[in-house]
């Protein structure tokens, strides 16, 4: 730790074709009340001029590093930035969203109260992009990322269980600041898949010790046309969920008690995501993906998964009533 006992935070920002949003997004990081130790911007092969915008506006700032790579996807862009990071803590930020100005300053306060902290988990809010038709989305239809609970937990597993019990465990990487050594010591890097957070964040939690949760909102997620979560689905989405399921199964097999139980819930949720995509999209899966899906289903005995395979709506109804009577978590 540095001499004045202030934690250093490396903010890593992958950028890909977001020229209309990138300045506002990065400015919200640069203009924190307390500046980040460093900001690492990874231009992931942008073709819309985003890379030039970054160079022109941030290339002369001493604590900003900019690298340009071929397009490899969000996860690998984060990995590239992580390998350059020299801060004691890592934070992954998305280049079309916004950061509240007091994230870094508040994290420093929390660190001073909890100097052994591994993971800091916080809340977020969503807003629709005013420059697109998404502005018509009703506020109550926007994704919600509120923890609704706060606390300090001695292990990431206990924090994972508490958040899962509360229905507020969110895998999104931009909801966490975490110790870099936790990541490097346990080889916690991103796979080259879509939905990479679905398997990364549970791995992170299960390796973590002291974890602090706050309900305060520090992140504003922009809901816009063209983002990963708003575009049409493809086989890559299915593959991403299958890869995540395989990781979650491995974690479950090495866990016990409530942690094992809630990992099984996440496995079920990922399988249901696959069924929903197949139901809503006209996707023809390759033989290898079909075989991978069949293998996952063969190894899963959850009766709710069986119901979801044939009717996702009935699955949702059944899950609701089974939770009400305490039959499932």
Automatic annotation (TrEMBL):
PANTHER family: GLYCOSYLTRANSFERASE, GLYCOSYLTRANSFERASE TAGX-RELATED. Residues 10-135 form the Glycosyltransferase 2-like domain. It comes from Klebsiella grimontii. This is Capsular polysaccharide biosynthesis protein. Gene3D superfamilies: Spore Coat Polysaccharide Biosynthesis Protein SpsA, Chain A. InterPro entries: Glyco_trans_2-like, Glycosyltransf_2, Nucleotide-diphossugar_trans. Pfam families: Glycos_transf_2. Signal peptide: none annotated. The lineage of its organism: Bacteria, Pseudomonadati, Pseudomonadota, Gammaproteobacteria, Enterobacterales.
């Amino acid at each position: 730790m540095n001499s004045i006992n202030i934690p250093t935070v490396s903010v890593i920002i992958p950028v890909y074709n977001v020229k209309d949003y990138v300045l506002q997004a990065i400015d919200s990081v640069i203009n924190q009340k307390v500046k980040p130790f460093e900001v690492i911007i990874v231009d992931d092969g942008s073709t819309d001029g985003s890379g030039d915008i970054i160079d022109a506006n941030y290339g002369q700032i001493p604590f900003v590093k900019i690298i340009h790579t071929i397009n490899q996807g969000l996860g690998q862009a984060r990995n590239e930035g992580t390998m350059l990071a020299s801060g004691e803590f890592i934070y992954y930020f998305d280049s079309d969203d916004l950061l509240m100005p007091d994230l870094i300053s508040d994290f420093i306060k929390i660190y001073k109260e909890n100097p052994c902290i591994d993971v800091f988990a916080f809340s977020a809010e969503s807003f629709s992009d005013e420059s697109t038709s998404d502005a018509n989305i009703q506020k109550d239809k926007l994704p919600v990322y509120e923890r609704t609970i706060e606390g300090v937990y001695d292990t990431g597993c206990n924090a994972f269980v508490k958040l899962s019990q509360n229905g507020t465990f969110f895998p999104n990487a931009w909801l966490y600041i975490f110790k870099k050594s936790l990541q490097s010591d346990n080889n916690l890097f991103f796979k080259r898949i879509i939905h990479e957070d679905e398997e990364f964040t549970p791995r992170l939690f299960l390796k973590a010790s002291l974890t602090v949760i706050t309900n305060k909102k520090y992140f504003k997620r922009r809901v816009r046309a063209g983002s990963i979560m708003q575009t049409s689905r493809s086989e890559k989405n299915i593959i991403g969920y299958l890869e995540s399921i395989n990781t979650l199964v491995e974690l479950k097999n090495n866990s016990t008690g409530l942690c094992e139980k809630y990992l099984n819930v996440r496995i079920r949720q990922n399988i249901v995501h696959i069924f929903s995509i197949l139901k809503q999209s006209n996707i023809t899966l390759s033989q290898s993906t079909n075989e991978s899906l069949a293998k996952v289903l063969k190894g899963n005995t959850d009766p709710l998964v069986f119901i979801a395979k044939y009717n996702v709506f009935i699955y949702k109804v059944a899950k609701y009533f089974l939770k009400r009577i305490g039959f499932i978590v």
